Amino acid sequence: MVVYENAMIAAAAETTQVADFVAKRQFAPMYIWLDIAFLLVFAGLLLWRRKTMTVLVGLAAGVLYFAVDYGIFNLALHTRSIEGGSMFWVLLWMSMSYGFTNFAWIWLWISKDSHLFEWSLLILGWWFCAPPIVQTLVARFAPDQADHPIIIQRTTGAYHGWMALILFVGYLALIIWNLAHERRSQRVNIPWLLAIGVLVQFGWELGLLIGGIRSAGLGLQETLKPLVVNSLLETNLGMPYVYVIFLAVTARYTETLSKRTHPITMLERLAENNAECVTH
């Protein structure tokens, strides 16, 4: 009996170890300031193109990211650790950076913006170009930052299961909705949402990985796990809920926050969105 119990405990520990992994970032402080400059440029371009709702969605997402990352992951679950910086300020920047960029980009995708290619190129271009730019500038103007980088990491075992549950429930609801509606115009385009949810996260995970920021100093398996698992799970889990919010808001308001001349129902907005297409 004792042997059996020990075997069960060992198996459970092994399962936990497999499910858990470290998501780590290492970067010079200069990276933060250059990224803030990019965020200001990005937000300015959105406002120039009268994407007021998109900017507000991005800001709200940044606040939500910070509440989850600092409040839950750090304070409640104690999964965060940091070297060389302030946990509060670094997480505030990270949350606003990726929260704003991710969800502004998602909103542009969902709304099938006519300049989606340009917005996507801008965001992906920055994610891929920022690390080597920072490395060059640090080597030239602030070599001490290379010796004293900020290292921040988190483990995932305490919450990825809950994230998976949220993801499953959200997409299950969409599947049931589609099965209950025969007219194609009234069905949610699930492949489109999946593509957005996976590719947005994959884009910045890959950018961080190639730039040497993500999983620096870790082995191949520990490096690839965040890329694959986070891309499938972390941003993607919110897509069904974000889409419902999108339908509810845009059924009554335009991108400039003015009321639609003729407000429509969410079902009508779904059909309208399905009929829209990305043009370039």
TrEMBL record:
Membrane-crossing segments per the record: 30-48, 55-76, 88-109, 121-142, 162-180, 192-217, 237-254
Keywords: Membrane, Transmembrane, Transmembrane helix
Presence of keyword Transmembrane: yes
Listed name of the protein: Uncharacterized protein
Organism: Bifidobacterium eulemuris
Lineage of source species: Bacteria, Bacillati, Actinomycetota, Actinomycetes, Bifidobacteriales
